[in-house]
Amino acid sequence: MPMRFGTTLLALFLVVGLVFIVQEVMLKYSLDLTCPWCFAPLHFLSGFALGGCAAWGYFRFETFFGKFPYFFQIVLAVLITGIGWEIFEYATGMFAGQKNIVADTVVDLAMDMTGAWCAAYLMRGIFTHRKTSPLV
């Protein structure tokens, strides 16, 4: 295993740790009730971390879902996880006190997808620096 896989995985775990720390601080100070837009950057960071981990797995183990295009695989993995998280939020009552649940869910999933795309683009550059197009 080349060093770049280990170094990249360590960096991704640090991002995941940052997500947990930021979320705990936000929940401790009830920012979900006083500042509802504050969770959008957190969802971007979460999507970035999940997308980075999915991309790391893609390049480490060659593929996840057969012959689907790279970006589709990464974004699909994060979308499935994001939908699962939104179902978890609804099932556990985390939406209590929020007025527009649908808008919140759409923004959360959009930020997850944006973070996943950015991570996929970055990871593609890290692991395939010899390719001419990062979108192939």
Could you explain the architecture of this structure?
- The chain has 136 residues and is mainly alpha-helical.
- Helices cover 75% and strands 0% of the residues.
- It is globular, with a radius of gyration of 16 Å.
- It is built from five helices and no strands.
- Helix 1 (3-28) runs antiparallel to helix 3 and helix 3 (39-61) runs parallel beside helix 5 (101-127).
- The chain has helices at 3-28, 31-34, 39-61, 70-91, 101-127.
- Residues 131-136 have low confidence and may be disordered.
Helix percent band: over 70%
Count helical runs.
5
What is the general shape?
globular
End-to-end span in angstroms? 24 Å
Q: What structural class do you assign from the helix and strand content?
A: mainly alpha
Beta-strand portion reads under 5%
Q: What's the count of strands?
A: 0
Oligomer: single chain
Radius of gyration (Å): 16 Å
Order of helices and strands: HHHHH
| Low-confidence blocks of residues | 131-136
Mean pLDDT: 80
Reported for the largest beta sheet, the result is: none
